[in-house]
Amino acid sequence: MSATLRDPEDRRLPRIAGPCGLVIFGVTGDLAKRKLMPAVYDLANRGLLPPAFALTGFARRDWSTDDFAQIVHDAVREHARTPFDERTWEHLASGFRFVQGEFDDDAAFDQLARTVADLDAERGTGGNHAFYLSVPPSSFPVVCAQLARSGLSKAPSDTWRRVVIEKPFGHDLASAKELDEVVSQVFAEDSVFRIDHYLGKETVQNILALRFANQLFEPIWNAHYVDHVQITMAEDIGIGSRAGYYDGIGAARDVIQNHLLQLLALTAMEEPVSFDPEALRAEKEKVLSAVRLGADLDTTTARGQYAAGWQGGEQVRGYLEEDAIPEGSTTETYAALRLEVDTRRWAGVPFYLRAGKRLGRRVTEIAVVFKRAPHLPFALGATEELGQNALVVRVQPDEGVTIRFGAKVPGTAMEVRDVTMDFGYGHAFTENSPEAYERLILDVLLGDPPLFPRQREVELSWEILDPVTAHWATSGPPEPYRPGSWGPRSAEEMLARDGNTWRMP
Predict the structure, then answer these.
(1) 369 with 227: CB under 8 angstroms?
(2) What residues are designated binding site for substrate?
(3) Which residues of 302-316 are buried (b: 16+ CB within 10 A; e: fewer)?
(4) In this predicted model, what pLDDT tens digit does every residue of 57-82 receive, in sequence order?
(5) Residue in 259, 375, 427, 471 annotated catalytic
(6) What does the pLDDT look like over 194-213, one tens digit per residue?
(7) Is residue 259 annotated as part of the catalytic site, yes or no?
(8) What is the pTM of this model?
(9) Residue ranges for the binding site?
(10) Which domains does the chain carry?
(11) Mean pLDDT of all residues in the chain?
């Protein structure tokens, strides 16, 4: 086929960014080294970055550009997902720049402005630049103010300037609004990209394909057939070196407010009129605005804190024994909520969300559990081992979908037992799935925002969570639980009141 006949809107074709530059603040941090720098290299190696691309690091370290290039090189060698290619590296590295300075240093930002202008002239970045704030939210005001003062946030005609913000988007509704006010004074809403890396995962996006590309599932995706939904994000490790960030934040603010409520929205939303950003976001916002907490938060929420004990054959410390955790901290390392979505589709269906550390294994999944058949025409005892049908979307680590249903056990008797059908990304496709940050960084450079929550989604999520954290603040310490278990007893009791139990992932 002639190239002139190729449809530029064909989404099956590789989407390649145009001339542009990326400036990373906080380039010495763990996120930049483990995720951002390797993702940039992998995009270049896949041919998805333009020849006219530049990467600029900004930090207080007294580095030269060559020093910065060595840091990127080491990060790429250790964490990149694609093989190291010398030609790709040499071309990419020729577009590296480094600016040394503090966030409140006018001279450093003036130098950054000159560096960006030089890249436009020398590298051909065309005036298009994204600023990645891989820094604590407390630094957002000063960085945004400097970007405005130096003129870096103002895009010349026919060019763009964008800002990328990492979670947390505040620590409650009030701080989220304050944060948005700071950013919106400098960048328009359509130029603000709030990163929730879970939304960049292939299996999360596959929820939309599973639901809306298949007639098989959507007719039963409602309260007539669904008994309940469980959304789990479990980690088998402790907080490690994150005490400075984690204590005072806890499991609910760290992952339920963003990751798990986004997964709930994608699971429960109505079909959008299209997958344009506005249409997709509108349906997610409808779901979040319809989420309701239980009247009694003592029985419809649970929180816990991992204790010391044995896990995986080794003795591990409890949360209160971790380095830099203050004595008597009431920060939860496990949180569970029972929510309902107050719409016609989901009336009366409980959504159970749980997240925790030091649990039985590392897994993130969405389990849609269906009601039992209204009549079973089998002999007494034939279905004793038959559970409820379930469709499970495995987000990580074994990305795929499992369907659990009943089947006859081979033999002369009619005995029905649960079996599973399994789809795994690694078995079904030869293509390697891009890492979440690859997808999200590319979408920033393309200006494609469907996977990025906008401010209204952030605020709705805090409106759901704030009453819970306020209640917990007056409810005494969290309940201890054993490392390697699946959380505190109160979480089990929360489901038992509905006649349900947590899935064993």
Answers:
(1) yes
(2) 197, 201, 235, 254, 357
(3) bbbbbbbbebeeeeb
(4) 999 999 999 999 999 999 999 999 99
(5) 259
(6) 988 777 777 787 888 889 98
(7) yes
(8) 0.89
(9) 60, 102-103, 167, 197, 201, 235, 254, 357
(10) 3-166 (3.40.50.720), 199-496 (3.30.360.10)
(11) 89
